[in-house]
Amino acid sequence: MNDRDELRELWQSEPAGRTDMEMLLERVQEQSRRFDRRVKWSNVAETTAGLLGTVYFAWKALQEPHPILQAAAWALAASGVWISLYLWRWARAGRAPEPDRTVKSYSAALVEKYDRRIRLLKSAKWWYLLPIYAGLMLFCLGLALKVPSMSRHTAGMAALFTAFFGYLWWLNEVKGVRELRRLREETAELEDGD
Amino acid sequence: MDEEARRRTFLRLMAEFENPLRRLAACYQRSPAEREDLFQEIALAVWRALPGFRGQASERTWVYRIAHNVALSGVERARRRRWREIQVEADAPVMPRMEASLDLERRRQMLFDAVRELPAADRKVVLLHLEGLSHTEIHEVTGDSPGAIATRLSRIRERLSAAVNKRPV
Fold first, then answer.
1. How high is the mean pLDDT in each 10-residue block of chain B (169 residues)?
2. Nearest to B130 among A7, A16, A105 (CB)
3. Reported pTM
4. Are B99 and B168 spatial neighbours (Cβ–Cβ below 8 Å)?
5. Is-contact A102 B143, C-beta < 8 A?
6. CB atoms A187 and B164 under 8 Å
7. ipTM of the complex
Protein backbone atom coordinates (compact mmCIF):
# COMPACT_ATOMS: atom_id res chain seq x y z
CA MET A 1 0.00 0.00 0.00
CA ASN A 2 1.52 3.36 -0.93
CA ASP A 3 1.66 6.44 1.30
CA ARG A 4 -1.23 8.11 -0.41
CA ASP A 5 -3.59 5.19 0.09
CA GLU A 6 -2.49 4.80 3.68
CA LEU A 7 -3.09 8.47 4.35
CA ARG A 8 -6.50 8.34 2.72
CA GLU A 9 -7.48 5.28 4.71
CA LEU A 10 -6.34 6.89 7.92
CA TRP A 11 -8.11 10.11 7.01
CA GLN A 12 -11.40 8.40 6.32
CA SER A 13 -11.23 5.93 9.21
CA GLU A 14 -13.28 8.12 11.52
CA PRO A 15 -16.48 6.63 12.96
CA ALA A 16 -19.60 7.65 10.99
CA GLY A 17 -21.41 10.86 12.02
CA ARG A 18 -24.58 10.66 14.04
CA THR A 19 -26.37 13.86 13.08
CA ASP A 20 -30.16 13.72 13.01
CA MET A 21 -30.61 15.06 9.47
CA GLU A 22 -34.28 15.96 9.91
CA MET A 23 -33.33 18.13 12.88
CA LEU A 24 -30.47 19.66 10.93
CA LEU A 25 -32.86 20.46 8.08
CA GLU A 26 -35.33 22.13 10.47
CA ARG A 27 -32.55 24.24 11.98
CA VAL A 28 -31.20 25.20 8.56
CA GLN A 29 -34.67 26.16 7.28
CA GLU A 30 -35.24 28.32 10.36
CA GLN A 31 -31.84 30.02 9.96
CA SER A 32 -32.57 30.60 6.29
CA ARG A 33 -35.95 32.21 7.06
CA ARG A 34 -34.34 34.36 9.78
CA PHE A 35 -31.64 35.48 7.33
CA ASP A 36 -34.25 36.47 4.70
CA ARG A 37 -36.29 38.35 7.31
CA ARG A 38 -33.19 40.21 8.54
CA VAL A 39 -32.23 41.29 5.01
CA LYS A 40 -35.81 42.35 4.25
CA TRP A 41 -36.20 44.38 7.47
CA SER A 42 -32.84 46.05 7.18
CA ASN A 43 -33.78 47.19 3.63
CA VAL A 44 -37.17 48.41 4.87
CA ALA A 45 -35.54 50.24 7.83
CA GLU A 46 -32.99 52.00 5.61
CA THR A 47 -35.60 53.08 3.05
CA THR A 48 -38.04 54.20 5.76
CA ALA A 49 -35.37 56.24 7.58
CA GLY A 50 -34.43 57.98 4.30
CA LEU A 51 -38.08 58.62 3.43
CA LEU A 52 -39.02 59.92 6.87
CA GLY A 53 -36.04 62.30 6.88
CA THR A 54 -36.96 63.54 3.42
CA VAL A 55 -40.65 64.06 4.25
CA TYR A 56 -39.81 65.84 7.52
CA PHE A 57 -37.32 68.29 5.96
CA ALA A 58 -39.51 68.88 2.91
CA TRP A 59 -42.39 69.76 5.22
CA LYS A 60 -40.08 72.09 7.21
CA ALA A 61 -38.96 73.73 3.96
CA LEU A 62 -42.54 74.43 2.95
CA GLN A 63 -43.26 76.03 6.32
CA GLU A 64 -40.05 78.08 6.65
CA PRO A 65 -40.26 81.73 5.51
CA HIS A 66 -36.52 82.46 5.82
CA PRO A 67 -34.87 81.72 2.44
CA ILE A 68 -31.58 80.31 3.81
CA LEU A 69 -33.31 78.09 6.36
CA GLN A 70 -35.67 76.99 3.61
CA ALA A 71 -32.71 76.16 1.35
CA ALA A 72 -31.10 74.22 4.24
CA ALA A 73 -34.26 72.14 4.75
CA TRP A 74 -34.49 71.40 1.01
CA ALA A 75 -30.81 70.40 0.98
CA LEU A 76 -31.35 67.99 3.91
CA ALA A 77 -34.48 66.55 2.27
CA ALA A 78 -32.57 66.02 -0.96
CA SER A 79 -29.65 64.36 0.85
CA GLY A 80 -32.07 61.78 2.35
CA VAL A 81 -33.20 60.78 -1.16
CA TRP A 82 -29.67 60.89 -2.59
CA ILE A 83 -28.11 58.73 0.17
CA SER A 84 -30.94 56.16 0.03
CA LEU A 85 -30.61 55.88 -3.76
CA TYR A 86 -26.84 55.66 -3.59
CA LEU A 87 -26.93 52.88 -0.98
CA TRP A 88 -29.63 51.01 -2.89
CA ARG A 89 -27.63 51.14 -6.10
CA TRP A 90 -24.45 50.06 -4.31
CA ALA A 91 -26.22 47.18 -2.53
CA ARG A 92 -27.53 45.88 -5.87
CA ALA A 93 -24.04 45.93 -7.39
CA GLY A 94 -22.32 44.57 -4.30
CA ARG A 95 -24.11 41.29 -3.67
CA ALA A 96 -22.13 38.48 -2.08
CA PRO A 97 -20.65 36.03 -4.62
CA GLU A 98 -22.49 32.73 -5.11
CA PRO A 99 -20.80 30.07 -2.99
CA ASP A 100 -20.87 27.36 -5.68
CA ARG A 101 -18.15 28.96 -7.82
CA THR A 102 -14.66 27.48 -7.86
CA VAL A 103 -12.61 28.47 -4.81
CA LYS A 104 -10.28 30.56 -6.99
CA SER A 105 -13.12 32.52 -8.54
CA TYR A 106 -14.92 32.86 -5.19
CA SER A 107 -11.89 34.29 -3.41
CA ALA A 108 -11.25 36.66 -6.33
CA ALA A 109 -14.88 37.80 -6.00
CA LEU A 110 -14.44 38.27 -2.23
CA VAL A 111 -11.34 40.38 -2.83
CA GLU A 112 -13.30 42.41 -5.40
CA LYS A 113 -16.12 42.84 -2.86
CA TYR A 114 -13.63 44.21 -0.32
CA ASP A 115 -12.23 46.57 -2.97
CA ARG A 116 -15.72 47.88 -3.70
CA ARG A 117 -16.42 48.40 0.00
CA ILE A 118 -13.09 50.19 0.42
CA ARG A 119 -13.96 52.49 -2.51
CA LEU A 120 -17.38 53.12 -0.98
CA LEU A 121 -15.96 54.07 2.42
CA LYS A 122 -13.19 56.19 0.92
CA SER A 123 -15.75 58.20 -1.02
CA ALA A 124 -18.21 58.44 1.91
CA LYS A 125 -17.11 62.02 2.56
CA TRP A 126 -18.54 63.06 -0.81
CA TRP A 127 -21.74 61.06 -1.15
CA TYR A 128 -22.71 60.65 2.51
CA LEU A 129 -21.10 63.23 4.80
CA LEU A 130 -20.89 66.30 2.57
CA PRO A 131 -24.58 66.57 1.56
CA ILE A 132 -25.80 66.37 5.16
CA TYR A 133 -22.97 68.52 6.50
CA ALA A 134 -23.61 71.22 3.88
CA GLY A 135 -27.32 71.21 4.76
CA LEU A 136 -26.55 71.54 8.47
CA MET A 137 -24.04 74.36 7.95
CA LEU A 138 -26.57 76.19 5.82
CA PHE A 139 -29.07 75.68 8.64
CA CYS A 140 -26.61 77.19 11.20
CA LEU A 141 -25.95 80.15 8.89
CA GLY A 142 -29.67 80.73 8.34
CA LEU A 143 -30.35 80.54 12.08
CA ALA A 144 -27.54 83.02 12.84
CA LEU A 145 -28.94 85.46 10.25
CA LYS A 146 -32.54 85.01 11.34
CA VAL A 147 -31.86 85.33 15.09
CA PRO A 148 -28.64 87.35 15.50
CA SER A 149 -28.88 87.19 19.30
CA MET A 150 -28.33 83.43 19.10
CA SER A 151 -25.22 83.59 16.92
CA ARG A 152 -22.91 82.31 19.70
CA HIS A 153 -25.12 79.29 20.24
CA THR A 154 -25.30 78.74 16.51
CA ALA A 155 -21.51 78.87 16.24
CA GLY A 156 -21.27 76.28 19.03
CA MET A 157 -23.77 74.09 17.19
CA ALA A 158 -21.76 74.37 13.98
CA ALA A 159 -18.58 73.40 15.83
CA LEU A 160 -20.34 70.39 17.35
CA PHE A 161 -21.61 69.27 13.93
CA THR A 162 -18.12 69.69 12.50
CA ALA A 163 -16.55 67.60 15.27
CA PHE A 164 -19.21 64.89 14.86
CA PHE A 165 -18.81 64.74 11.08
CA GLY A 166 -15.03 64.68 11.53
CA TYR A 167 -15.47 61.65 13.75
CA LEU A 168 -17.71 59.98 11.13
CA TRP A 169 -15.10 60.69 8.48
CA TRP A 170 -12.40 59.05 10.64
CA LEU A 171 -14.66 56.08 11.36
CA ASN A 172 -15.28 55.44 7.64
CA GLU A 173 -12.15 56.50 5.86
CA VAL A 174 -9.50 55.63 8.44
CA LYS A 175 -10.75 52.90 10.78
CA GLY A 176 -13.19 51.21 8.38
CA VAL A 177 -10.83 51.23 5.40
CA ARG A 178 -7.92 49.95 7.52
CA GLU A 179 -9.99 46.98 8.73
CA LEU A 180 -11.27 46.18 5.22
CA ARG A 181 -7.74 46.32 3.81
CA ARG A 182 -6.61 43.81 6.42
CA LEU A 183 -9.47 41.46 5.51
CA ARG A 184 -8.72 41.87 1.83
CA GLU A 185 -5.04 41.04 2.29
CA GLU A 186 -5.89 38.04 4.42
CA THR A 187 -8.33 36.66 1.85
CA ALA A 188 -5.87 37.23 -1.00
CA GLU A 189 -3.09 35.53 0.99
CA LEU A 190 -5.30 32.53 1.75
CA GLU A 191 -5.69 31.86 -1.93
CA ASP A 192 -2.11 32.63 -3.01
CA GLY A 193 -0.42 31.70 0.14
CA ASP A 194 2.52 29.44 0.52
CA MET B 1 -36.80 22.59 -7.93
CA ASP B 2 -39.92 22.30 -5.77
CA GLU B 3 -39.77 22.38 -1.98
CA GLU B 4 -40.16 18.62 -1.54
CA ALA B 5 -37.39 17.83 -4.05
CA ARG B 6 -35.19 20.41 -2.35
CA ARG B 7 -35.78 18.76 1.06
CA ARG B 8 -35.08 15.29 -0.27
CA THR B 9 -31.90 16.36 -2.09
CA PHE B 10 -30.64 18.23 0.97
CA LEU B 11 -31.18 15.24 3.28
CA ARG B 12 -29.50 12.89 0.84
CA LEU B 13 -26.49 15.17 0.27
CA MET B 14 -25.98 15.85 3.96
CA ALA B 15 -26.20 12.16 4.82
CA GLU B 16 -23.70 11.35 2.08
CA PHE B 17 -21.26 14.15 2.85
CA GLU B 18 -21.59 14.56 6.59
CA ASN B 19 -18.26 12.92 7.43
CA PRO B 20 -16.19 14.69 4.75
CA LEU B 21 -17.74 18.02 5.73
CA ARG B 22 -17.06 17.44 9.42
CA ARG B 23 -13.45 16.54 8.59
CA LEU B 24 -13.16 19.70 6.51
CA ALA B 25 -14.58 21.79 9.38
CA ALA B 26 -12.08 20.18 11.75
CA CYS B 27 -9.24 21.34 9.51
CA TYR B 28 -10.42 24.96 9.44
CA GLN B 29 -11.47 25.30 13.10
CA ARG B 30 -9.77 23.87 16.13
CA SER B 31 -12.46 24.21 18.79
CA PRO B 32 -15.36 21.72 18.64
CA ALA B 33 -17.94 24.51 19.01
CA GLU B 34 -16.50 26.44 16.07
CA ARG B 35 -16.33 23.27 14.00
CA GLU B 36 -20.02 22.64 14.66
CA ASP B 37 -20.81 26.27 13.70
CA LEU B 38 -18.86 25.90 10.47
CA PHE B 39 -20.57 22.59 9.66
CA GLN B 40 -23.98 24.23 10.12
CA GLU B 41 -22.97 27.26 8.06
CA ILE B 42 -21.99 24.91 5.25
CA ALA B 43 -25.33 23.09 5.58
CA LEU B 44 -27.14 26.44 5.43
CA ALA B 45 -25.17 27.49 2.32
CA VAL B 46 -25.97 24.16 0.64
CA TRP B 47 -29.68 24.61 1.44
CA ARG B 48 -29.75 28.15 0.06
CA ALA B 49 -27.77 27.25 -3.06
CA LEU B 50 -29.81 24.14 -3.92
CA PRO B 51 -32.47 25.88 -6.06
CA GLY B 52 -29.67 27.16 -8.32
CA PHE B 53 -28.02 23.76 -8.78
CA ARG B 54 -28.35 22.84 -12.46
CA GLY B 55 -26.11 19.79 -12.48
CA GLN B 56 -23.28 21.35 -14.54
CA ALA B 57 -20.86 20.02 -11.92
CA SER B 58 -21.18 16.69 -10.10
CA GLU B 59 -22.93 16.88 -6.74
CA ARG B 60 -19.66 16.00 -5.05
CA THR B 61 -17.64 18.87 -6.55
CA TRP B 62 -20.59 21.24 -6.05
CA VAL B 63 -20.81 20.45 -2.31
CA TYR B 64 -17.04 20.74 -1.86
CA ARG B 65 -16.97 24.10 -3.63
CA ILE B 66 -19.58 25.47 -1.26
CA ALA B 67 -17.88 23.98 1.79
CA HIS B 68 -14.47 25.45 0.98
CA ASN B 69 -15.91 28.83 0.07
CA VAL B 70 -17.90 29.03 3.31
CA ALA B 71 -14.77 28.08 5.25
CA LEU B 72 -12.80 30.72 3.32
CA SER B 73 -15.27 33.52 4.07
CA GLY B 74 -15.14 32.42 7.72
CA VAL B 75 -11.89 34.40 7.84
CA GLU B 76 -13.97 37.55 8.02
CA ARG B 77 -16.05 36.30 10.94
CA ALA B 78 -12.93 35.08 12.71
CA ARG B 79 -11.50 38.56 12.35
CA ARG B 80 -14.60 40.09 13.89
CA ARG B 81 -14.32 37.73 16.82
CA ARG B 82 -10.65 38.48 17.38
CA TRP B 83 -11.29 41.17 19.99
CA ARG B 84 -12.72 38.70 22.43
CA GLU B 85 -10.73 35.98 23.96
CA ILE B 86 -11.77 32.67 22.56
CA GLN B 87 -11.32 29.85 24.92
CA VAL B 88 -10.13 26.97 22.82
CA GLU B 89 -11.90 23.91 24.06
CA ALA B 90 -9.79 20.85 24.26
CA ASP B 91 -10.45 18.11 21.75
CA ALA B 92 -12.58 15.30 23.11
CA PRO B 93 -10.36 12.94 25.06
CA VAL B 94 -9.61 9.64 23.45
CA MET B 95 -11.49 6.93 25.32
CA PRO B 96 -9.39 3.97 26.45
CA ARG B 97 -9.57 1.32 23.78
CA MET B 98 -7.43 -1.50 22.56
CA GLU B 99 -3.86 -0.53 21.79
CA ALA B 100 -4.25 -0.83 18.02
CA SER B 101 -7.24 1.44 18.08
CA LEU B 102 -5.40 3.94 20.26
CA ASP B 103 -2.52 3.98 17.82
CA LEU B 104 -4.93 4.55 14.94
CA GLU B 105 -6.55 7.41 16.86
CA ARG B 106 -3.16 8.94 17.64
CA ARG B 107 -2.02 8.74 14.02
CA ARG B 108 -5.31 10.15 12.76
CA GLN B 109 -4.96 13.04 15.19
CA MET B 110 -1.41 13.66 13.97
CA LEU B 111 -2.65 13.69 10.39
CA PHE B 112 -5.37 16.23 11.25
CA ASP B 113 -2.84 18.40 13.09
CA ALA B 114 -0.42 18.25 10.16
CA VAL B 115 -3.18 19.21 7.68
CA ARG B 116 -4.33 22.05 9.93
CA GLU B 117 -0.81 23.48 9.97
CA LEU B 118 -0.58 23.67 6.19
CA PRO B 119 -1.05 27.02 4.42
CA ALA B 120 -4.68 27.41 3.33
CA ALA B 121 -3.88 27.00 -0.37
CA ASP B 122 -2.18 23.64 0.30
CA ARG B 123 -4.79 22.57 2.83
CA LYS B 124 -7.74 22.85 0.47
CA VAL B 125 -5.98 20.72 -2.17
CA VAL B 126 -4.84 18.02 0.22
CA LEU B 127 -8.25 17.85 1.93
CA LEU B 128 -9.92 17.10 -1.39
CA HIS B 129 -7.22 14.60 -2.28
CA LEU B 130 -7.63 12.75 1.02
CA GLU B 131 -11.37 12.62 0.44
CA GLY B 132 -10.64 10.68 -2.72
CA LEU B 133 -11.16 13.31 -5.43
CA SER B 134 -9.16 12.96 -8.63
CA HIS B 135 -6.92 15.78 -9.90
CA THR B 136 -9.62 16.73 -12.41
CA GLU B 137 -12.25 16.93 -9.67
CA ILE B 138 -9.90 18.96 -7.46
CA HIS B 139 -9.43 21.32 -10.42
CA GLU B 140 -13.24 21.59 -10.75
CA VAL B 141 -13.55 22.55 -7.09
CA THR B 142 -10.60 24.88 -6.68
CA GLY B 143 -9.99 26.28 -10.15
CA ASP B 144 -6.24 25.53 -9.76
CA SER B 145 -4.56 23.98 -12.80
CA PRO B 146 -4.05 20.17 -12.72
CA GLY B 147 -0.29 20.70 -13.02
CA ALA B 148 -0.20 22.99 -9.99
CA ILE B 149 -2.34 20.48 -8.07
CA ALA B 150 0.04 17.60 -8.86
CA THR B 151 3.08 19.67 -7.82
CA ARG B 152 1.43 20.77 -4.60
CA LEU B 153 0.35 17.25 -3.71
CA SER B 154 3.72 15.62 -4.26
CA ARG B 155 5.30 18.31 -2.05
CA ILE B 156 2.78 17.86 0.77
CA ARG B 157 2.50 14.07 0.68
CA GLU B 158 5.94 13.40 2.15
CA ARG B 159 5.41 15.97 4.84
CA LEU B 160 2.15 14.35 5.92
CA SER B 161 3.56 10.81 5.85
CA ALA B 162 6.48 11.90 8.02
CA ALA B 163 4.12 13.56 10.48
CA VAL B 164 1.89 10.50 10.76
CA ASN B 165 4.71 8.02 11.15
CA LYS B 166 6.46 9.98 13.90
CA ARG B 167 6.88 7.74 16.95
CA PRO B 168 5.41 8.98 20.25
CA VAL B 169 8.05 10.31 22.64
1. 90 94 88 89 94 88 94 63 39 48 82 88 92 93 92 89 73
2. A7
3. 0.77
4. no
5. yes
6. no
7. 0.77
